[in-house]
Amino acid sequence: MKLCVLALLWITLCDSIVIDNDYNVAMDDEVTPQTTATKRKDRRNCTRDTAIIDKLLNGTGYNKFRIPNDDGVRVSVEFWIQAITSINEITNDFEMDIYINEMWLDPALNFANMNPCKHNLSLSHQVLDRLWTPNSCFINSKFAEIHDSPFKNVFLLLYPNGTVWVNYRVNVKGPCALSLELFPLDIQECFLIYESFNYNNQEVQMRWAENSANPVVTMTPIVLPDFDLIKVSPTLVNAVGFLAWMW
Fold this sequence. Notes:
Helix content is 6%, strand content 40%. The protein is mainly beta. It is elongated. The termini are far apart.
């Protein structure tokens, strides 16, 4: 049997996919971390991570419930498939482990003028709980959770210009369109739809990472006992409607 996995991303009508031959995780200019200066910092006078976070979150009136930009936030998304662990013909679903990368710009978290000791801040998931996030999810999943072995598998990186990069390691189970009429020559399609759960498409615009050769990649060859993986197809779904005042 053959298997085709689809990954769908819902965004606003005005956005489109741009694919570049240069494969890297960096996003477009709006959310790409600023280039750091080559001049060596004076560490005797630089500001440490804890002081920066304290000032950003406690000393500036930062509000995690406020959308970073009144005109809407564009969130760049990239998936790294670690493994497809099971496909069940009885329940019509599949299960996989996946790394979800999201990147967006939050101007309220800009710390470039604080003379930081580091070019970027690597922070724990407890800090992420205090930041605004797009609250995105697989809206058609049967089950999804962040791995917590031995701790919550969340990577958070904050850049001086306020760019936020979050990486989640997630176990997710999604639906499949299984049809066995042509068995064993059938092709099965499994798919997941990823979007912001809390915000409409005027407030949060989801899109695939534009500077990546492929926004959905398999980290290692996928080997399944009863299926051959044909392809993984990232698809962009342009959703029209749901202006900010419509709910």
